[in-house]
Amino acid sequence: MRPAMGETNDEPGLGGQVALVTGSTRGIGQAIARRLHAAGMQVALHGRQATASAPAGEPLAASPGSPGPRVERFAADIGRKEEVVRLLAEVRATFGRLDVLVLNAARAPFKESWRLLERDLRQLLEVNLMGNVFLVQQARELLEAAGGRIVFVSSLGSRFMSPQYPLGPVKAAMEAMVRQWAEELGPRGVRANAVCAGLVRTDAFKTLRRLWTGLDRLPEAAFVPPEEVADAVCFLASAASRGVNGQTLVVDRGLSNRLLRE
Ligand SMILES: NC(=O)c1ccc[n+]([C@@H]2O[C@H](COP(=O)([O-])OP(=O)(O)OC[C@H]3O[C@@H](n4cnc5c(N)ncnc54)[C@H](OP(=O)(O)O)[C@@H]3O)[C@@H](O)[C@H]2O)c1
Prior knowledge:
alpha/beta; Rossmann fold; seven-stranded parallel β-sheet; 6 helices; about 35% helix; binds NADP nicotinamide-adenine-dinucleotide phosphate
């Protein structure tokens, strides 16, 4: 049974450690923050804005002032290098260490690639590729000092064409970047892996549902609860995955495995 908020599960080695989860104001990122907190980790919540964008009345699971390990909230647009530099300086000043960096934040236009305006393309690359590279660059020293772990959150668009989803090719590039980091940072004691999530009902998903009408024909069992993605991230963050480096773990309830069955 999952521990209640504030109780700790103390996953091997995670108790007392610090995680920064980008884009944890809502959706999958929020579930990841909650899971790592339940495992005993101190959590740096992060979003674009200073205030949580969770719907009013819906408290953040792991929020500043809640019982259990420390939780603090930070704001930064990861597409802007100077904001990433400030973010990591604030995390360092607040917690003094960083053990786990979860690269979850994403933002992208939903349109065919031939329709992308220059500003769409810039946002696509600045937030989803450059932003993540800035984060790792700025976090590297802290991660090396802690024997840290990087976990990137990818999507099935990295391997299957998905209509009006130009984020897919960028996710593919990021999965390759994870392999790069694993090799470059492995000798320095830092592991890097990815979780490729299937279909998860979040704010972003509401837009996809309008574009991919076939989604409505999928059985409910095809949808991945955010907590299942969070469990996989927690595994890759913990010592239980110490033998895993440079890999992408697909968490899609088998959806991609049976794509061509019907
Ligand atoms: N939903 C799915 O079906 C699905 C499937 C596979 C993979 N994924 C991946 O899972 C991750 C989370 O997806 P989600 O559906 O939970 O997304 P979401 O509900 O749209 O939440 C996105 C999060 O990213 C933050 N963010 C966006 N742009 C940012 C920026 N420039 N700087 C800093 N933070 C930024 C948002 O912060 P604000 O609240 O401040 O805007 C928010 O916390 C993404 O990487 C996504 O590609 C999602």
